[in-house]
Amino acid sequence: MFNPMVWRLIWQAAGETLYMVGVAVVLAEVVGLPLGIILVTTERGHILENPLVNRVLATIINIGRSIPFIILMVAIIPFTRALVGTSIGTTAAMVPLTVAAIPFVARLVETALKEVDGGVVEAALALGASPFQIIWKVLIPEALPSLVSGVTITAVNLIGYSAMAGAVGGGGLGDLAVRYGYQRFRTDIMLATVIILIVLVQAMQSLGDWASRSLSKK
Amino acid sequence: MIEIHHLTKIYSDGQRELRALDDVSLQIKPGEIFGIIGLSGAGKSTLVRCINMLERPQAGQVLVNGVEMTALSKGDLRTARQKIGMIFQHFNLLSSRTVFRNVAFPLEITGVPKAEIKERVDELLRLVGLEDKADSYPAQLSGGQKQRVGIARALANRPEVLLCDEATSALDPETTTAVLELLQDINRKMGLTILLITHEMPVIQQICDRVAVIEDGRIVECGPVLEVFTRPKTEPARRLVRGVIDIEIPSELLEQHANGDGSLLKISFIGASAGRPIMGDLMQRFPVMVNILFGRIDHVKDTPFGTLVVQLSGEAQAIAEATQFLAGQDLHLEVLRDV
To answer: B206 to chain A nearest CA, in Å?
Structure first.
């Protein structure tokens, strides 16, 4: 249907999308997971109760989540340039993607950890566990199926965001769909990229659901 | 083993204050099974949580094995908690861990080497009769089995005290009996001090040595279970006892005999006196007729105690002498109606 040139373009774009989203998810989890844990454990009556830290962190996270991605992307260009040396390209696009995903991940982690039965935490406390042991041996393992679902949601969301990253020359499937499909009236290319995106999202969701299910012992 | 002095705990939501515990003092001896009974909201859950400082009291002292829990630093409190086992109404097992790893959990916390953990967990699972369930997950177990895992976990670090927070309230009566038998067995074998709280009088009746009745955050009555059962001094205690041992005589029976002659007596026999033929003795010594209206035998832990309601008829003089004779015996006598 397409000549090999177009296929190469499509495959390259698919690779860029997976790369951007993959790295951004990993980095966002690395930062967002601890933030989510702090958010839960500093709550009133929890193992590291600290109202000040809790309120400040919650506010920052809410601010982060309120800024539209497209504006965030442009606003942090100086930060992106300082960090990766450029503000254009796939690597540069990973910075705003990660920054946007961090507060999102933190909230998902918070929700997942809050589902852990308070009685189990109380039992661990009664057995003399330290806050670190409770986080590491109780909260995370007990919430693991939900945490994995959270990673899936984040990845799928970031695929959507990555399309917008085309605006800063980020590359990826979304970018291809906009530049070739929309701007050059190549409906066939647009359709092909959209189908690939659908398959990608579907596959990620199924994989995530399967992983979450097989981890759950409830 | 556990000393509680003038413990007070107040919950406050800014406007209203709730005195969950009001100047509670108790002494629990080493090796005994001590029960605290009260209705929900009476403060018993708060009380048990104040012993290992899951709840911080506003005033008062708690000493466990001579260690003042209220004065410990965070680190020392964790060490102290490792020597105080606790089991819960809803078991609170880790759903992501197998039975084996649930029991291993407290040992991991105290840093016991892997090989030793294996040995200790196997031993504990044998003790609670779950050696074949080591690789099951809690979701695959029945309530009784879950509580057995809870007990094995609580005993892992060889505690001196076991706190039971409504440990049988979520179980059916048959399973309750089995779990209580296990607790009693552990108490005998290891000399473990057990403090249990419950709203179920049969639990107290089955395994406790002493009992405290709590109402509105206060201990209203405290003593050996047998005494509280047979001679409750306060209204809350009477109410609880009545629930399990209904020594209330059917009213139609009383009415029927209201116009009869002679006196009506309620006699409680405890332990040794339950075995002696006191009624036969009575009839031989005094010219009275004994008509038994009501009788039953109950058990408190391992002690049987009987209750009889009898009608004595005959000469007033003889009845008075017979009553005096009974009062001098090793039993509890209550005159329901005089001649």
So the answer is: 26
Q: Quick one: pLDDT band at residue B230, thresholds 50, 70, 90?
A: confident
Neighboring chain A residues of B92 at a CB cutoff of 8 Å? 117, 119-120, 122-123
pLDDT in tens, A144-158: 999 999 999 999 999
Answering whether pTM is above 0.90, one says no
For the cut 90, the answer to whether the pLDDT of residue A124 exceeds it is yes
Q: Which amino acid is at B287?
A: P
ipTM of the complex: 0.88
| DSSP state letters, B48-97 | HHHHTTSS--SEEEEEETTEEGGG--HHHHHHHHTTEEEEETT----TTS
Task: Enter the CATH code of domain A4-215.
Answer: 1.10.3720.10
B78, B92, B96 ranked by CB distance to A128: nearest: B78
A128 close to B (CB below 8 A)? yes
Domain ranges, ordered by start, for chain A: 4-215
Q: Give dist(CA B11, CA B56) in Å, integer.
A: 11
Query: What structural domains and CATH numbers belong to chain B?
Result: 2-244 (3.40.50.300), 253-337 (3.30.70.260)
Which chain B positions have a beta carbon within 8 Å of A215's beta carbon? 96
